[in-house]
Amino acid sequence: MLPSLKNGEILRGRYKIRERIGQGGMGSIYLAEDTRLKGRQCALKEVEYERALPENIREEARDQFLREATVLARLDHPNLPKVSDFFSNGPRDYLVMDYIPGNDLRAVLLEARRNKTFLKEDDVLTWGEQLASALAFLHSQEPPIVHRDIKPSNLKLMPNGLIKLVDFGLVKILAPEEVTITIIQGQGTALYTPLEQYGGSDAHTDIRSDIYAFGATLYHLLTNESPADARKRFLQPESLIPPRQINPAVSARTEKAVLWAMSLHPDERPHTINDFRQALLGYRESPTHPISSRRIRPQSALDYISNPPEATLTWSAAMLLLLSLLATLVR
């Protein structure tokens, strides 16, 4: 492991390091000043390769980084940081992105937990809608882009309320002829990682892997409790406690959508982010069991008169009855 960059060090004759603001499995994240654009701050995401790996694997990994950086630099979405540059410096590669001020959602979550309160469901769903927009954009690229490391600490809440999905360290471009080198890229964070993302192959990783991590992130934000990881759930299915048992204020609709997204088998999850977004925000039903096995609840009298056509008939009949009684009394 090479030493960290020093404060004041200048990379590429342009980026002056201010401080290290993060540490990941593949390297550090630095706050830097862009000396060409006065006053502009940026974040430098560092990628350092394991020197024990064979040289051909390291070279293949660097080629992969350059391809992915080129794709990311073309992206433009309000809920994603803009990638403005990428370069190599000795054995390390760097991705230059907008610096995003504000706390990440993990910090917001921990503060709520310290105060022994839950985050408001409306706030969590507002953040979820923004994350869904970012992921729908990534997944709609050609070829699709899978983030693979969605979690509260990778969601920055800006002072204006905008959410930004950061840290593209594990991003995977779903080009069918390419194989992601998982020994370089890592596997994500266990609490939010689906079963198919474990192991040494990404053959089964697709956009539904992001959907699982999305659901697990919402679970954590709504309950203040980290979800049981997928490996434990595979062995002990009852280890995942339904959100409403922890936080009764969570709506039944939200709980069903989150648990749908967290299905262990990819085929049992929403197939697209838009499917999940519609279930989460109330535009469609989240499947909990086959449609054919659902029972239709009998309508009560209150249900009946709450339905507009039936309500009109009911109140009309009541008025006619009342007029008839009055006419009888007058006579």
CATH class of the largest domain: Mainly Alpha
The CATH architecture of the largest domain would be: Orthogonal Bundle
Helical amount: 25-40%
**In total, how many beta strands?**
11
Any idea what the radius of gyration is? 26 Å
Q: Helix and strand succession?
A: EEEEHEEEHHEEEEHHHHHHHH
Quickly count the helices. Answer: 11
Proportion of beta-strand residues? 15-25%
**Roughly what is the average pLDDT, rounded to an integer?**
82
Main beta-sheet strand count, sense and barrel state: 6 strands, antiparallel
Question: Which structural category fits the helices and strands?
Answer: alpha+beta
CATH superfamily of the largest domain: Transferase(Phosphotransferase) domain 1
> Major sheet: order of its strands?
1-2-3-4-6-5
Shape: globular
CATH-defined topology of the largest domain: Transferase(Phosphotransferase), domain 1
